[in-house]
Amino acid sequence: MEFKETTFLAQNTPEQLHALRHLVFHDILTLDSAQNTLTWWPEHKVISLNEAQKRFFSCLLLRITSKRQIIATVWNESYPSISDNNYHQLLFQSRALLKRAGLPDGLLVTLPYHGVRLNEEKLMAITR
């Protein structure tokens, strides 16, 4: 993974994650946090994101997979009052967003009893 206009820190805080401008995954996906967009480069599709989706995809691109860490990052200060239902709804909405944009199924992989991750193997296979 390559990072542009940012410094990757070993111990990222939610505030540091929100400050990242661009996250790039092998020239396949680019998250632009200033524009709240996710760009799918194989077909040059730009997908608009809401704030929660932007934070969610920043976690995935930084390989943060734990449900608790994702909740803490996405909902920041209010995360102690956020239920698992909010997390599952965000995951459902994000999958639906990718599907509406015409991206391949299976890009988000549920990790039972842990969280979710990007299907990096599938993403890399797309570029071959």
Q: Which structural traits does this protein have?
A:
Arc Repressor Mutant, subunit A, two-stranded antiparallel ribbon, 128 residues, 7 strands, Response regulator, Sig_transdc_resp-reg_C-effctor, disordered N terminus, alpha+beta, five-stranded antiparallel beta sheet
Give an overview in words:
The chain has 128 residues and is α+β, with helices and mostly antiparallel strands. It has one domain: Arc Repressor Mutant, subunit A (Orthogonal Bundle), CATH 1.10.10. Helix content is 39%, strand content 21%. The chain is built from 5 helices and 7 strands, in the order βαββββαααββα. The strands form 2 sheets. A 5-stranded antiparallel beta sheet has the order 1-2-3-4-5, covered by helices on one side. Strands 6-7 form a two-stranded antiparallel sheet. Strand 6 and strand 7 form a beta hairpin. Helix 2 crosses helix 3. The longest helix has 17 residues, at 84-100. It is globular. The model is unreliable at 1-12 (pLDDT under 50).
Helical/strand content category: alpha+beta
Main β sheet profile: 5 strands, antiparallel
Proportion of helical residues:
25-40%
Number of domains: 1
Percent of residues in beta strands:
15-25%
| Helix/strand order | EHEEEEHHHEEH
CATH topology: Arc Repressor Mutant, subunit A
Q: Which ranges are low-confidence, i.e. pLDDT below 50, for 5 or more consecutive residues?
A: 1-12
Protein name: Response regulator
Organism: Candidatus Pantoea symbiotica
InterPro entries: Sig_transdc_resp-reg_C-effctor, WH-like_DNA-bd_sf
